[in-house]
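Q: Could you fold this chain for me?
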Amino acid sequence: MILSIDEACFPPEIAYDAVDLRHMMARSGAETLVLEEDGRIVAFLLMEVDRGRKTATLVTLDVLEECRRKGYASSLLARSEQTLAGLRVTSYKLQVDTQNEGAISFYRKNGFEEQRLLRKYYPGSRDAWEMVKTLPPSAGT
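A: Sure. Below is the predicted structure, expressed as structure tokens.
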């Protein structure tokens, strides 16, 4: 189900294939959060955590089109930040297509800032913004 959600959310040249998605989810430090509606997965977030460096990368945040505008992306992002707080992660980054204004706006509203431009990051020579959010230190750190 997760693969079909990713395929529905991104163009074929950007969406993960089954092998890549399985590999990303099985990597050391990978964390996958899912959100269900009526017993079926309708959204998921995949992140990779480097506990030693106290950093994390949001690999993908996917919500089925018919389930958007319900706060699911915000909910998954908040849950991921709670997980990261528990792991004492202080820096959260992601890459987003510079032409995806909706996603850029969403991430800005959630505290991410453009840090650097990644030229030709995506297939078709499309650029990406690397966006970063500094997370507050965990209590008891």
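A (continued): The mean pLDDT is 93.
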